[in-house]
Each structure stands twice: as C-alpha cells, then as structure tokens.
Specification:
With about 80 residues, the protein is mainly α. It is about 85% helix and about 0% strand.
Length: about 80
C-alpha cells in the first residue's frame, strides 16, 4: 500500500475514533480539522494512485463527514435559489 493510502486509512481511523467520544460542539471543531487535513491528503492520493482511488477516498471521507457535506449542499441550494 502506498504512503498516501496508508495516511488516508489513518485519517479514517482517527475520524472514527474521534466520533466515539462525546463533544459539546457536536464534533464540528473536529470536522473542521479533519476537512483541513483531508483535502491535501485527497490531492496526495490522486497524485500517487490516480483519480479512481481518489474518488474512492473522497466517497469514504464524505460518508464519514456526511453532515458538513449535507449542510454545504443546503447552503449551496439556498445560494442558487437566492440568485434567481
């Protein structure tokens, strides 16, 4: 396994371990850190392994961070409707 996939698996493990513990802010602070670390890591995976592995890692990351993705989609929808 390449270094980038190993780091992506470690990222997923840390994200799942962090989700097991209670948080006063509903894990949003952890989500911001995971997103900030995950975006460059995703680029590294695509660079080292190609776009199909990158797509797989992106889908895995989106399944872990589904609420930020959902809220971003809702925000984007409101922005599109507001411009009409």
């Amino acid at each position: 396994m390449t270094l980038s996939l190993t780091l992506a698996a470690l990222w997923a493990l840390i994200a799942n371990l962090r989700a097991m513990f209670p948080s006063k802010d509903n894990h949003w602070r952890s989500a911001y850190v995971l997103i900030a670390v995950g975006i460059p890591l995703l680029g590294f995976v695509v660079y080292e392994n190609g776009p199909w592995w990158g797509l797989g890692v992106l889908i895995a990351g989106m399944s872990i961070l589904r609420y930020p993705v959902l809220y971003f989609g809702c925000w984007l929808g409101r922005m599109v409707r507001h411009k009409k």
